[in-house]
Design a protein that fits this description.
The protein has 830 residues and is mainly beta. Helix content is 6%, strand content 52%. The chain contains 6 helices and 55 strands. The strands form 13 sheets. It has a 7-stranded mixed beta sheet with strand order 28-41-40-30-37-32-35, with no helix packed on it. A hairpin with a 5-residue loop joins β43 and β44. α1 packs across α2. The longest helix has 18 residues. The protein is globular and about 90 Å long.
Length: 830
């Protein structure tokens, strides 16, 4: 038996190997039972709770070899040290004692006894640590010893406290967590509003002995709110099973605390229960743009409220006031899980948010460092002026011409007085930097931001979707200003009103599927300047519940160049401001329509090799213009988005071309149609959107068929011997129009991206549909020992030196267990 007990070292995240489902991940605490600042926290990247348990790991005195540097020796043979590497042996020792008492225990049984016997700990405010810091709690050998039986099982987490994640606003947090005054940040606000959903929780059930007819039953007030993923019907002894659960609070639910449980049952009899608790926040009802509530709060407790913020709200101002000596906090949690908080002063805390996200916000009041209850007043003011229309597209206007519009402004918030109107235009400059990173290494660069920059945006691009790069941006004072950690081949960051100075950007190679990953980093500086093209007239004030008209006239100067110009009408009053987008295209060129369609049969075989479409353009300003448009089949399905460029003086045509093989493969029926023409200027600005449809009296079958291509059909043809899988075989469908010799290459990966096998299969194929078997050896999958799906990736069909077709992510199996495969190597681990 292999018992895996892993230390946890990274603060703020738990990564491999500590994120393993079967391992026992150990965090560290000090002698007072407080979680060490170096001890990492969950959840894992796939939403599971880690660590599993904690043990003493701060200033631990242990035997040490003589003469080592950087150790604090207390005498000749003993030294004092800190780390989860000191906590882990303590838990391993307790595990050894449990096995000494009952040698028949499986690793899963040991884990169940350890976690069920642990004691939960409180933070420096006397409030219980979240499980993401302490897991089940502090290891307790005696408790675990008393729990030993022949029916041990467990579940992590062992209770479900439902809530919203809380991330610092502006992407400034490395991980979730708000500062509630304790020694560790609080990762969640433990309340939901009606209509909210908590869908990120994943549970791990583990059992010492084999189980049959497993099920999960939901009971209590929340039974109708919870959706649970099924457990496997049966499990072998020493098994783990991951299952997810989500909960949604119905709209119209009254405020209060709702409870229930998820019962894991064997043959209908509960064997373990997970308590569920949901606190539904109280509504804040706004009247004439404001809402208030007076309430009382006890030491160390929370009060939760929710506020509906309509789309287009300009500002939220929240004010918390109290008369006593308590230390109180007000947190505003957006629907996007970003939180906002300002420090309190003299019994008052105020937070002002401009252009808040729309949706239901949660406002959380917290009392700390107090010995008695405290009364408070919470007041919220909302500024919301609605414009109809919400934006103005003036269309194409010739140099020296003008356009006008009347807009209706209705006030559904606070009174808006002393209104001023002005035109604002946004300009931007971009620069690009190329670089590369390797696995777990970083790349750093600096750039200057001038004083007049209103918005700063960064876009990181790389070509291999299997690589995972992270992007971080630090302000001139060295603080993290924003971060992006997605899983696509791009990362994007935006920072509004950035302070001037030298900024630092860091690119981190989290997962790199080669020696290095090249990337391009595009940085754009957006500035705002007065826009003299706009003349505006409107009222000086708009009271709550009333509406008024504003008249706009846009005059294009005689010397304006042909391009699209975007700006704003800015409206400012005593309580808030409003920006109404305005767009105009300076008419230097326009689309006349389609001026010709060509069909090119290069080899005279009766099939069209190339389709060409000529778009006629008139231009008052000479330059290079680009036209794009969509080619569709008779069902309205897009076959190809076509593009072409040409230099135009006065008038001319732009030719757009499509490969006949793409049309044959992607089109379903005829006749074809070409529509949605977009004309771009030299700077990439949209000059015109032309919606005329042109019918092309051809069928996709009139075009050149490709030599061969993947039919996108896949079959699991794995071979079995003695009831177990001996070889992984995937049947790949190929459609062949030209008989010959073809090579198919592919990789097989697990959920972690590890390459299980690679193949290059060369075979002769006849005309028609064929299934080519790709055979992979399962030995590496068995050796890794982790239950996982298998993914067929990087699939290519090759003839000679030409790649005829490719699919990056072709096929995925259902979850597979290494125990289902034949192998000379067997492993038992947790």
């Amino acid at each position: 038996m292999v018992l895996s007990v892993l230390l946890l070292a990274l603060s703020g995240c738990i990564d491999s190997p500590g994120d393993g489902v079967k391992v026992i991940t150990v965090g560290a605490v000090d002698c007072r039972g407080h979680v060490a600042d170096f001890s990492g926290s969950g959840p894992t990247r796939d939403g599971r709770t880690k660590p599993d348990i904690v043990a003493p790991g701060v200033n631990v005195i242990a035997s040490a070899p003589l003469g080592l540097k950087d150790l604090k020796y207390v005498d000749t043979y003993y030294a004092k040290s800190s780390g989860t590497s000191l906590s882990t042996p303590a838990v391993a020792g307790v595990a050894a004692l449990l096995l000494q008492k009952d040698p028949s225990l499986s690793p899963a049984g040991v884990k169940a006894a350890l976690l069920k016997g642990a004691v939960r700990l409180n933070n420096t405010l006397g409030e219980e640590y979240e499980p993401y810091y302490q897991g089940a709690g502090l290891v307790n050998a005696y408790n675990s010893y008393r729990l030993l039986s022949d029916d041990l099982c467990g579940v992590v987490p062992d209770r479900w406290m439902v809530g919203r994640w809380a991330f610092m606003s502006g992407g400034k947090a490395v991980s979730a967590g708000l500062d509630s005054g304790a020694d560790r940040p609080q990762k969640k606000i433990y309340a939901l509003a009606p209509g909210d959903e908590d869908w990120t929780t994943r549970f791990v059930f583990f059992t010492d002995k084999a189980r049959e007819n497993l099920s999960v039953d939901v009971k209590g007030d929340v039974a109708g709110w919870i959706t649970v993923m099924d457990l496997p019907e049966s499990l072998e002894g020493n098994s783990h099973a991951v299952f997810g659960a989500s909960i949604k609070v119905p709209n119209g639910t009254s405020p209060g605390v709702y409870t229930g449980s998820m019962e894991i049952c064997e043959k209908g009899t509960p064997i373990i229960s997970v308590p569920v608790r949901v606190e539904v926040a109280s509504p804040l009802i706004t009247v004439m743009g404001s809402a208030s509530v007076a309430d009382e709060i006890s030491p160390g407790s929370w009060r939760y409220y929710y506020l509906d913020v309509p789309l287009g709200t300009q500002q939220i101002r929240s004010m918390l006031s109290w008369s006593g000596s308590s230390d109180m906090d007000l947190f505003l949690l957006a629907p996007t899980s970003e939180y906002y908080h300002e420090d309190s002063s003299n019994g008052m805390e105020e937070t002002v948010l401009n252009n808040p996200a729309s949706g239901r916000w949660i406002l959380a009041v917290h009392q700390r460092n107090a010995s008695s209850s405290e009364r408070f007043l919470l007041r919220v003011e909302r500024s919301f002026v609605k414009s109809e229309p919400g934006a103005w597209n003036a269309g194409a206007v010739m140099p020296g011409g003008e356009a006008s519009v009347s807009m209706r402004l209705s006030n559904e918030g606070l009174p808006l007085r002393n209104i001023s109107y002005s035109g604002i235009v946004e300009n931007s400059t971009s620069f690009s930097i190329e670089g590369y990173v390797s696995e777990r290494l970083s790349w750093t660069a600096k750039f200057d931001v001038p004083e007049d920059v209103r918005r700063l945006s960064l876009r990181l691009l790389w070509d291999n979707p299997k690589s995972d790069l992270d992007l971080r941006l630090y302000s001139p004072n060295g603080r993290l200003a924003a971060r992006s950690e997605g899983y696509e081949s791009t990362e994007e960051i935006q920072v509004y009103d950035p302070p001037p100075g030298s900024w630092t950007v860091v690119v981190i190679g989290y997962d790199v599927f080669s020696d290095k990953q090249d990337f391009e980093l595009v940085t754009t500086l957006h500035t705002r300047e007065p826009w003299g093209w706009l003349d505006v007239s409107g009222p000086d004030e708009i009271l709550p519940g009333t509406a008024a008209s504003v008249n706009l006239t846009l005059r294009v100067p005689e010397d304006a160049t042909a391009k699209e110009v975007r700006g704003y009408l800015e409206l400012r009053g005593d309580n808030s401001s409003l920006e109404i987008p305005v767009r105009v295209t300076v008419a230097g060129a326009s689309v006349k329509g389609v001026d010709g369609i060509g069909f090119d049969d290069e080899d005279n075989d009766g099939f069209i090799d190339t389709l060409s479409i000529k778009v006629a353009v008139n231009s008052s300003v000479p330059g290079v213009y680009r036209a794009e448009g969509g080619l569709f089949d008779c069902s309205g399905r897009m076959i190809k988005w076509m593009s072409g460029s040409a230099s135009i003086h006065d008038s001319g045509t732009i030719e757009l071309r499509a490969d006949g093989r793409d049309i044959w493969k992607s089109g379903g029926c005829g006749p074809l149609s070409f529509r949605d023409i977009i004309l771009y200027g030299e700077d990439g600005d949209v000059l015109e959107e032309h919606n005329q449809t042109t019918t092309i009296d051809r069928s996709p079958l009139d075009f050149q068929p490709p030599q061969a291509y993947f039919s996108r059909s896949f079959t699991d043809m794995s071979e079995r011997a003695g009831g177990r899988i001996s070889s992984i075989v995937i049947g790949v469908g190929v459609t062949v129009n030209v008989p010959g010799t073809y090579t198919i290459t592919a990789r097989l990966r697990n959920d972690d991206g590890d390459v299980i096998g690679e193949i290059a299969n060369t075979t002769s194929l006849r005309r028609g549909n064929s299934t080519v078997a790709l055979r992979f050896n399962p030995t590496k999958f068995v050796m890794l020992g982790e239950r996982s799906r298998l993914h067929l990736t990087d699939l290519k069909l090759i003839s000679g030196d030409e790649v005829l077709d490719s699919i990056d992510d072709a096929w995925s199996s259902s979850p597979m267990d290494p125990a289902d495969f034949t192998s000379e190597r067997t492993m038992v681990s947790i």
